[in-house]
Amino acid sequence: LEAKEEFEHNSLAVDVMRPRRSDPPLAMLTQDSMTLGEVESTHYSGFPVVVSSESQRLVGFVFRRDLLISIDNARKRQEGVVSASRVVFTEHAPSQPPEAPPPLRLRGIMDLSPFTVTDHTAMDITVDIFRKLGLRQCLVTHNGRLLGIITKKDILKHMAQIANRDPDSILFN
Ligand code: ADP
Predict the structure, then answer these.
(1) Rounded distance, CA 157 to CA 161, Å?
(2) Which tens digits make up the pLDDT trace of 125-161?
């Protein structure tokens, strides 16, 4: 995101975030209720981690790359890592039946304070934050519940759309 391009348009975070209304829901990981098989079957670059899918309270963010590396390492070094192993991002592993495979503890790879904006944050402010903090993505919340995600590419696409429609709204100086 070039700092010399000034973004002057009254769109809001909710207009740029994914998922769109017609998209499948946001792919999230829950902090202690998913299996390794479920975690591995996801395909975005990163995932918000939430308390539970019902609460949608954000607890952190993990990159898919880090997840895959950690899972790979665990398979090499740890006994009994199977698709049914529980993936746990909490400090203490939840109790499991004695016959269950040991959980995979991945709190260490989670960003505990991912950047968030609310759905009504103006995009010019959001773009400014992306630039100043060098963000690659940012999460969007409403009343403390996780709603969506905005990546750097989403912003670039949005700017390109606006520039096509309304070239004066982005000033090049
Ligand atoms: P990029 O935007 O750099 O291509 P991603 O693979 O993270 O990287 O995202 C691709 C698209 O999917 C973007 O429009 C993004 O907003 C959206 N997206 C990213 N993460 C998720 C997620 N966990 N759930 C749903 N959509 C996501």
Answers:
(1) 6
(2) 999 999 999 999 999 999 999 999 999 999 999 988 8
Task: Calculate how far, in angstroms, residue 26's C-alpha sits from the geometric centre of ligand 1.
Answer: 9
Q: Of all protein residues, whose CA lies closest to atom 17 belonging to ligand 1? A: 18
Is residue 19 within 6 Å of ligand 1 at its C-beta? yes
Confidence band, pLDDT 50/70/90 cuts, at residue 164? confident
* Ligand 1 binding pocket includes 47 (Cβ within 6 Å): yes
Q: From residue 79, how far is each of 32, 73, 74, 82, 92 by CA, in Å? A: 20, 11, 8, 9, 20
Cis bond leading into 19, ω under 30°?
yes
42: domain CATH number is 3.10.580.20
44 lines ligand 1 (CB under 6 A): yes
Number of domains in the chain: 1
* Structural domain range at position 49: 5-172
